[in-house]
Amino acid sequence: MTDSSTAPPGLPSLHWGWILLAAAGTFALTMGVRQTMGLFLGSLNSSTGLGLANISLAFAFGQLWWGLTQPFAGALADKLGAGRVLLTGMALVALGTVLTPLMSSTPGLVFAIGVLAAGGAGMAGPAVLMSAASRLIPAARRGLATGIVNAGGSFGQFVMAPLAGALTLGLGWASAMQVMGLLVLLALPAAWVLRGNSAHAATAATKPVSTREAIGTALRTPSYLLLAAGFFVCGFHVAFLATHLPGVVAACGLPLQYSAWALAVLGLFNIVGSLTMGWAVGRWRMKTLLSLVYAARALGVLAFMLAPKSGVVVLVFAGFMGLTFLSTVPPTAGLVAKFFGLGNMATLFGLVMLSHQVGGFLGAWLGGRVFERSGNYDLVWIIDIVLAVGAALIHLPIREAPLRRVAVLAPT
Hints:
18 helices; disordered N terminus; Growth Hormone, Chain: A; single chain; mainly alpha
């Protein structure tokens, strides 16, 4: 085996490290910008006077729309090529983020944050990026590759959160947000590196079926449905933390800088969690790893609820949650590939991401609604614990094996 990727016909062969850098770097910029938007929630509320619940609705819609775009973006990438989809997505993220400070109504915020920025991030999100990396990287490195791409999003959050805080102090929140949006355009060269589509994954003996047939087979597969249900819980947890962790820190009576550093620590430890999970995927059963992650989340949230709220406790909690934050992505993507092969992976993983973001919509919206009515987040934490325990249990019946119809469903 060589270190160069199996490049699509007609495209130059690239070392797999460049492919990973392109995919992880794109995810770092798009995810880093999205995951730091919670830092601007209070400023948006003060500037517009719309109320926390209405602004949370825009963020919640963004969580849902990010998921809704991914199956369609995946289908387009499978057919037209990842490069074109990524270019469009990056441009939309930049445009939506730049326009957000100019909006003064709930529909305006929903359009800028929820439709443009979130939709663009979905097009340049994990469904397209992980499918492209899996297609271009040798099979022996795919488990680690998905962990590295996933860690890119965490690294972006780790870097972008303090940067957003510093820009806010120096330029004001509106200009800081617009600068953050423009930074996404630094990932444009990655579209060239990751170009190509799923047809390049096919062998002479197999051919991918239509998108409709692939989706129909997936929706009749119990293990796939259980996997999607677990990812719904992941979305609830991740979106609530990404949107409301600064509010949680403020409710503890801590200074603003703890909010930025809590998000940064969350991202930093997620790098460790993602890389560790990418390494573990090739060594242990993926469904077991997922059950352990969800059980750990439930224990972590329970411990935080019972602990005294200090700066150290908040940062330790952020670090522990970071270890589990997006470490569910490599085994989830790995199971989709194991079930169905690579031919329709972007589409089918995009559908699982849609389930994730339906949960994300509820986590982001419910956090604002509960806090506005009760003045605390206790009810959301309790719901999060119950959901995490349920997710840990429903992964156990998953049958971790390729479907017998894989040979005719999709190429491997």
